Amino acid sequence: MTETPVLRIDDLRGPPPRPLAWLRRHPVVIDVAVVLFACTPLAAALVLRAYDFGWWGWPLLGLTAGALLLRRRQPMAVLVVVALACAWSPLAQPGTGFPTIPTAFALYTVASRQSTVRALIGYGIGVAATVLATVPHSLAGEQPPRVALLDSFALIALVAGLIVRNRRDQQQRLLELVNERIEHAGLAERTRNAAEMHDVVAHALTMIVSLANGAASIRAKHPAKADAAVDRIAAVGREALAEMHRTLGLLRGADAGLDERLHRSGGNLPELEELVESVRATGITVSLTREGDQLPEDVALRQAVFRIVQESLTNTLRHAVSPSSVEVVVIHEHGRIEIRVEDDGGAAAAVHIPGNGLVGIQQRARAFGGTAESGPRPGGGWRTSAVLNAHRERRAEVHDG
């Protein structure tokens, strides 16, 4: 089965180069590269510069590196951690300045993955961290590092992140538009196929009725012509059936939901045992009792029995108050099929307004010369019963759906 094609972002971009494709499959490599690029200069500065009591720079550098490895998961939290770690670093002192490279990478991640407002807030966090770094120096009477509200690294990171996010959002909007047009085109094609199937079936049925009437009227005088008309009826029926199967194949191939519904309809309906088992999965105890003869091979009759039981169980799941058990009984004796579905739901289940489901049960029963009724059980619960005549020719068709 084929479904309506859905485009992805990569379909709009085209295949990326192999090295880039490999890096996309292994994002941890990029994360490690970012950590090395951002933290190696700071580590070198800690080694080359002699600081009194500067040992705390190494734990802060390790915290910065670990946080940057997690920047994709929690961008804003990582930005706060990195900015504070850099603010408390011994590198943030007069003559050295604020360590801005790790903060710039964290800010880029926020700008490229979150909203513009959060990106601007992230930029403000970076500026606040540089101001925080000057406090200890001011308290010690030292000249604090200079604070620039328009830091070049932070601005580049902010602008680059916003450009990347806007481009991604634009591609996503384009992708949604293209997929929407594809879906509309598929719907138009399915509608055309359905109309074509209607025309084919209507034409074929008209010919069959006309040929059948003609064959009946001339059989006594021209039996050969009547036999030829019957043969033609069979040929037209086969052609219409083949055309209908072809069109249904197109419809099913373009709609997975329709394919599943058609697969579970007509002669492909599951057994009652499978239906009962699916209801048991909800936690309700369901018993199925079959008495008498097996059901006839009439597909329409079996379909009616299945749908009556199915709708009755559905009503129990929807309307019964805390039911613990349901009993399903199917009795076939002397061409009479009796169906009973009873649950032990609370008394409130008796307050029930008949809907389309119960009407459908009655229509299916009447189609086979029978009756159906639903109502509360004495003492609580709900009962749905139906009687079908297996030998009586149906007077009306009930569409399966």
Automatic annotation (TrEMBL):
Zinc as UniProt keyword: no
Any GO molecular function: kinase activity
All copies of domain DUF7134, residue ranges: 21-168
Keywords, alphabetical: ATP-binding, Kinase, Membrane, Nucleotide-binding, Phosphoprotein, Transferase, Transmembrane, Transmembrane helix, Two-component regulatory system
InterPro entries linked to this entry: DUF7134, HATPase_C_sf, Sensor_HK_TwoCompSys, Sig_transdc_His_kin_sub3_dim/P
EC number: 2.7.13.3
UniProt-listed CDD domains: HATPase_UhpB-NarQ-NarX-like
Occurrences of domain Signal transduction histidine kinase subgroup 3 dimerisation and phosphoacceptor (ranges): 189-254
UniProt xrefs under Pfam families: DUF7134, HisKA_3
Transmembrane segments: 28-47, 53-70, 116-135, 147-164
Reaction catalyzed: ATP + protein L-histidine = ADP + protein N-phospho-L-histidine
UniProt-recorded name of the protein: histidine kinase
